[in-house]
Amino acid sequence: MVKVRLWGSLRQAADGKTEVEVEARNFKELLDRLAATYPGLEPQIRRGVSLSLDGVIYREAWFTEIRPDAEVVLMPYMTGG
Amino acid sequence: MSLDEYTRREFKQVGTRVRRPDGVDKVTGRAMYGADATAPGMLTGRILRSPHAHARIRSIATSAAEALPGVKAVITSADLSVPEDEFIRDVQDNCMARGKALYDGHAVAAVAATDAATARAALKLIKVDYEPLPHVTDVDVAIRPGAPVVQEGRALENVPAGMSANVTSHSEFGHGTPAEGFARADKIIERSFRTAATHQGYIEPHACLASYAADGKADLWCCTQGQFFVRTLCSAIMGMEASQLRVTASEIGGGFGGKTTVFIEPVALALSRKAGRPVKIVMTRDEVFRATGPTVSTSMDIKIGMTSDGRITAGEAHLRYSGGAFPCGTVDMGGQAAFAAYDLEHVRTFGWNVLTNRPKEAAYRAPGAPQAIYAVESVIDELCQHFGLDPIDVRLKNAAKKGTKSSYGPTFPDIGLVATLEAAKKHPHYSAPLKDGQGRGISCGFWFNFGGNSCVSLNVNTDGTIGVTEGNPDIGGSRASISLMAAEELGIPYDRVRTIVADTSSLGYNDVTDGSRVTFAVGLATIKAARAAIRLMCERAAKIWGIDAEAVEWKDGAAVPAGPNAGKFPPMSLAEIAAVSFETGGPIAGHHEVNVDGAGVSFGVHIVDVEVDKETGATKVLRYTVFQDAGKAVHPSYVEGQMQGGAVQGIGWALNEEYIYGADGRLQNPGFLDYRVPVASDLPMIDTVILEIPNPGHPYGVRGVGETGIVPPLAALSNAVSRSAGIRLCELPMSPPRVLKALTGAG
Questions:
Q1: Distance, in angstroms, between B258 CA and closest chain A CA?
Q2: For chain B, N or C: smaller number of CB within 10 Å?
Q3: Which domain holds residue A46?
């Protein structure tokens, strides 16, 4: 199981939690399982999210491997100028 | 993908200040900008814009304009499809109003005619029947229940019930329990701040030339930060396949984020399709201000607690951003960035985006961060003043570092904030004496940076020179830095490499030039493309020598035997291998396509000295120094230019620049005479100190530098003004009238 930290305003879509656990070996599995387990998260995931793995931020990287003890943080999709 | 780890090396070319490849073209006028494109039979396009801040469009009568001799096409939103994708539909509706005009300057119709005078005359013949509606241009008014509603039904699922229909999104970041932290504070300061919308202020107005052929193929030449994204947007709006639209980016006279989307390009394409001839549109400056994207306007409440020895016990921010008449996610970036420089046990930010009858926001360097960090850094400074503490010491005491749980969630890996603060503290500027009436301010800044999709093709010419083809418009020196990295990797002189920016039919997809990504991400792809070419050249040398390819390595621009067992052969240079490439298997090239991550966040610290004229309220900037972690500075002059440019834009934001709306909801100052950007005579030389803390996610340690520099100036100036004039302004810009009013109010 991978622990995923959510940003605060997603709490209402995740049964009141800001940290959830899902079974996932990579980002694609993680996002799929999050959306399946917490359907309220699906609109945000569809609009776009970034993921931080051990402090490194990824925007799109489905097949990035996640170790079970890794720090995973869901973040809004990064934009810049 | 796995991250490409940094390997320490001695650079021979990277880090030198080589001649810029676009210099001669730009100083001689040879460079081709957006407005320089021409085509046989070209028509002139002009756009009719709403004079109302908010109005229902009952009807648009175009027949009189169409009947005018010389007019070849007139279009309205009825000539465009309605894209299913909401994001693209918003982009289209911003290019041409559908049903309602949402802000002063919103496009409602367009004409193509044989000359500009005829096009202008035709615009006057278009009759638009408007039903003016109540408008709202102030974010604090727009968020109130009962405010005029800009667009119905645009709230995301995360907006709490009962809010104004103008609130389109809500976000919350942070950890801990701020109330517990505030209870431990010796002093809590709460302040409310406002910042004006500012424009990116690029010198080159938007311009494009569209040519839509009878067979459904089209070409588009335009000034843009991202020709591939232009293709994505325009092909969707026009209902075209991407392969049928070729977009070529011109040289660009500044973008700063404002040219990451489209405003006139779909209009020109639609006019060209209807007229059957090429159509060129060049915006006036008035149009640029009224109808392209400024940054968000904001209203913010900040609360920070501190102990008497300078430890921050808790921080909280409520951010209300308006990205104009369309939903906008910039407040999310502000909420994440607000407290990023600090190691806090208790921190929380709340953000709301609010619709107003203003132009649709476009990105502006580190979008969302300068405003939130301005407010936070101002309160930190006020607490430092309250306790009589040194502002750099306080920031060092609370600085985020490796292992800090950031205010936006992840735990920081190695970051350069402490080194940047220490460099600022020991710099002579920080200890230089000030005269009476002068004040010194500092501020930290932060930006995320990112990588993104990047394709590079590197061709080895038979004379031993190199052509690099990349897909990102050069807005900050990327052609020089890419050439430098290719030369470094190949081991040949810089002047043997020429880098060009390809059109959308010549290369795979490249993300927009934004997010401080190009030198980092395209540079990484260039290094990989060079390595691919090197592998081929080693194979060719191995064939010539009759040994295994594995027994050949690349050293100082030549193939050499890998060791004594490989045989004794003199080095074979790149030029020698290239000269016989036709005989040894054909042309030699390397390419690399990748979606790059691992950009690494960036911190900066700015110090500024000012003197406020208490009779006029004018603020004079006396001395300014920028400290920034750049990773490896590939071309230090360009890096310094980014740092200086960011500082200058931030100074303008802090002191003068603002969108001013009248009670009628119309923009009052759409021109550079009334919207005052800093000019050279306003400023001292901006000094720079580059810190080179290698980014572990790049083979050369490169980090993006394009955006962080605009983040600290807002608070640095505000803090300096407070120490010079003895007043704390909580609204930007600190224009002379506003400063004077505060001084008068302060007695």
A1: 7
A2: C
A3: 2-76
Among B455, B456, B450, B472, which residue's Cα sits nearest to residue B516?
B450
The minimum CA-CA distance between B678 and chain A, rounded to whole Å, is 21
DSSP-assigned states of every residue in B196-211: -------SSPPEEEEE
pLDDT of residue B1: 39
Give A-chain residues touching B413 at CB under 8 angstroms: 54-56
Q: Which residues of A touch B (CB under 8 A)?
A: 5, 7-13, 40, 43-44, 52, 54-61, 64, 71, 73-81
User: Does residue A81 lie within any of the structural domains?
Assistant: no
Residue A16 counted as domain residue: yes
Distance CA(B624)–CA(B647), nearest Å, equals 8
Name every chain A residue with its beta carbon within 8 A of the beta carbon of B412: 55
CB B227 within 8 A of CB B248: yes
B413-449+600-747, CATH topology level: Aldehyde Oxidoreductase; domain 4 (3.30.365)
φ/ψ of residue B668, rounded to 5:
-90, -15
Instruction: Please give the tally of structural domains in chain A.
Output: 1
Residue with tokens 């503290």: B425
Nearest-neighbour CA in chain A from B101: distance (Å):
26
pLDDT band at B33 (very low <50, low <70, confident <90, very high): very high
Task: Tell the CATH topology of B452-596.
Answer: Aldehyde Oxidoreductase; domain 4 (3.30.365)
- What is the band of B4 on the pLDDT scale with cuts at 50, 70, 90? low
What's the pTM value of the predicted model, to 2 decimals?
Answer: 0.97
CA distance B599 to B449: 6
Q: Which residue of A has its CA nearest to B512?
A: A81
pLDDT band at B2 (very low <50, low <70, confident <90, very high): very low
ipTM of the complex: 0.97
Which strands sit side by side in the sheet containing B245-249, from one edge to the other?
B71-75, B107-113, B43-49, B279-282, B207-212, B218-222, B245-249
Which residues in chain B have their CB less than 8 angstroms from residue A58's CB? Answer: 597
Q: What are phi and psi of B626, to 5 degrees?
A: -110, 130
Q: What is the pLDDT of residues B236-282, one digit of tens each?
A: 999 999 999 999 999 999 999 999 999 999 999 999 999 999 999 99
